[in-house]
Amino acid sequence: MAINAHPTLPEFDYLRPETLIEASDFLVRHAPDARPFLGGTDVFVRMRDGLLTPKFLVDVKRLPGMNDLHFDPLSGLIIGAAVNMNRVIASQEVQEHYPMLAEACRSVASYPLRNRATIVGNICNASPAGDTLGASLAFEGVLHIHGSDGMRRESLVNFFLGPGKTRLKAGDIAVALHLPPPPAGSKGTYLKLGRNKLSDLSIVGVTALAHPDSAAPSGYRFRLVLASVAPVPFVANEAEDYLANTPITSDSIRAAARLAAEACAPIDDVRGSVRYRKQMVKNLSTRALSEVWEKLKK
Amino acid sequence: MAFHKIYLTVNGKDEQVVVPSNMTLMCMVRESLALTGTKNGCSAGECGACTVLINGEPVNSCMVLAAECDGAEIVTVEGLASDQQLDPIQEAMIEAGAVQCGFCTPGVLISSRALLDRNPNPSEDEIREALVGNLCRCTGYVRIMDSVKAAARR
To answer: With 0-12 CB in 10 A as exposed, 13-18 as middle and 19+ as buried, what is B48?
Structure first.
């Protein structure tokens, strides 16, 4: 692929509709040449590399609801699509109730880029390496979407279809991400392996979240979501089920991590080989699950 | 392609600029306003040479459209000094010899200024984290770190 460091972007028309209806109508009428536009941190790179050639970028950042960020103990957290990652990191309520989400955001690129990058944009790009997808899935996130038929909700569980592919249709604008209140007593962590300590794309990313659950035979329910090891964010169901049914010990944690490594389906690419990634899934999952288990026992 | 008439403040001065849709903020400050202190490094949001402040917050100006900046307050490296008086971070970088080829320097200055504005007494780790998006190909990071610490003490 050609590396294009030319400062100029290919030609397109920038527009900023006043209402969601106007925006969705425009996107439907001009599909597939029009795209909703948030921070641009991904779309500009792909446009400069010639991978995307939209004729219209529809700036949706100032539409109603896009800048909301609020928490309610009963209904949970709403993150508007235009809320940048630094705002999420700085939020007292996110730090208190969803610290793992703040941790995942902090692992993204650099401070200046996070002033533009958004969680909803990260989700809509549907890169398997997306750092905030694991936390959004583990907290059972639901997207609020405005489409040509009005508002609807889509659970993230079935949202990702492949690299860059989602259930979004022409005219759809993701308005906000809703995270329900976190399970009582939940603890989580995000471990990311990159080529350097900060700012890189993940070679492997491991999101682990757990909480006490008297309905589970082991007394605990774990969530384990892996980045960069499958075409979509990979939920390690086998490992989760195993830990729900087996007493939690360092041995059972290692066994669960092995199950995750066996189940995931990474590819060889510039950032890592299949074999390396599977090893790292095993090691990092062990580390992440142990870390969460230590936090739970306190 | 559409053109947009935007009104904004750049380094405290009111500006009115007509920009095409695909013009980035970086191109606008360099080419329309002739403020060439802001550099084009990677055009991908990775190197930080084009960092400027929008409404007080640092951004990679190669990743922002000029048309989005209608009504915004922009500060480029040219706006750090005022009344012939350098910003403390500029003085500290000169004193520490934190400049080699100088290409990354404007971005480093802006990121450092923004860090000190939001955190006047940053730890070593906080400085590293704030500057992770500013690459110095001369690898002169030690003196850059020293100068941010020195500026924080002023």
So the answer is: buried
The phi, psi pair for B63, rounded to 5°, reads -110, 20
Strand partners, A13: A56
The answer to whether A5 touches B43, Cβ cutoff 8 Å, is: yes
Question: Pick from A130, A155, A179: which residue ends a domain?
Answer: A179
**B-proximal residues of A, 63-122, CB under 8 Å:** 86, 109-113, 115-116
Q: Which fold has domain B3-79?
A: Ubiquitin-like (UB roll) (3.10.20)
Inter-chain residue contact B133 with A199, CB threshold 8 Å: yes
pLDDT tens digits, residue range A150-174?
A: 999 999 999 999 999 999 999 999 9
* Domain range enclosing A135: 69-179
Q: What is the pLDDT of residues B93-143, one digit of tens each?
A: 999 999 999 999 999 999 999 999 999 999 999 999 999 999 999 999 999
Residues of chain B within CATH 1.10.150.120 domain(s) are 88-153
DSSP structural state of residue B101: S
pTM over 0.80: yes
Q: Which of A63, A105, A106, A113 to mutate to test the interface with B (most CBs of B within 10 A)?
A: A113
